[in-house]
Design a protein that fits this description.
Protein name: Branched-chain amino acid ABC transporter permease
Membrane topology: Multi-pass membrane protein
Helix content: 55-70%
Pfam families: BPD_transp_2
Family: Belongs to the binding-protein-dependent transport system permease family. LivHM subfamily.
Keywords: Amino-acid transport, Cell membrane, Membrane, Transmembrane, Transmembrane helix, Transport
Distance between the termini: 47 Å
Number of helices: 15
Strand content: 5-15%
Length: about 350
Amino acid sequence: MDVILPQILNGLDKGSAYALIALGLTLIFGTLGVVNFAHGALFMIGAFCSVSLSRILNLSYVTEDPTQTDFLGKPLKVETPYLEAWFGPEFGGALIDWSVPLAILFSIPIMILVGLVMERGLIKHFYKRPHADQILVTFGLAIILQELVRGIYGANPIQTPAPDMFRGSIDFGAMLGFDPNVIIYPYWRMIYFFFSAVVIGGVFAFLQFTTFGMVVRAGMADRETVGLLGINIDRRFTIMFAIAAVVAGWAGVMYAPINAPNYHMGMDFLVLSFVVVVVGGMGSLPGAVAAGFLLGILESFASMTAVKEILDGIDQIIIYLVAIIILLTRPRGLMGKKGVMED
């Protein structure tokens, strides 16, 4: 168990990111019928929301401290964050320290705006076009957004630390009754998993138990009939696009302390997330989530040293091998529905 449990935890960590991105992809495909290759860019923009808020909160001014001098006897110049000057070192410092969790709120209007502009400005013109056209235009949009981010923030990864109290690791094994210091796991990765579970549960609850969600699910099943009832289903689907953008953004916001944001991180996750969507079944929300965690765990076990000694490089291709096997035996994926992507 001291070998298996850490791999399961690593798999849940990776699977959380796959599941959140795949969930948003499936929401967009299930409602609008669009294969959105720009969805990974939304994940990247979310991560850079964390970077941006951290920089904003760390804005400071320079003063001279006469109590400290350099080797020439001149007063040292000290940078003081504006927040600490306005609210005091304790509260102001806490706001700076908690920049990543605060970025969850900061990212909401940004991701909604980006999602609405993306959907209303470009993607709506491709609803009735072939999926190949949708892939080409959204992939081009993803490249444009990626290059814009590189132009603004640079090409190098930007470290975005978690709050001080969540840095370091927890003795997870001791909590379960194992010997101390046997199963050590980073705090923030566990928080990321629980955060993902809450977001995924919230999306499913929203679709299942709210009137808005019920109408959306009905529109996903039979768009024309819902429209004949006098419901503006297109407007609701546009709102769902914005919600999917927020979900992808949140995935990126909370992932920033795990993997320093860089301009190509969206593309890195996009391909794997599309594999997750296809394995789970196009248009199936439960399938996307289940496949995300399943493939995350398999990838984690494949990255073990003992496994790579037997099959070198297996960790790089395991997800694609599993996808091939599943699609050969179940062409619609684990939970795919008849008629989806079969025309």
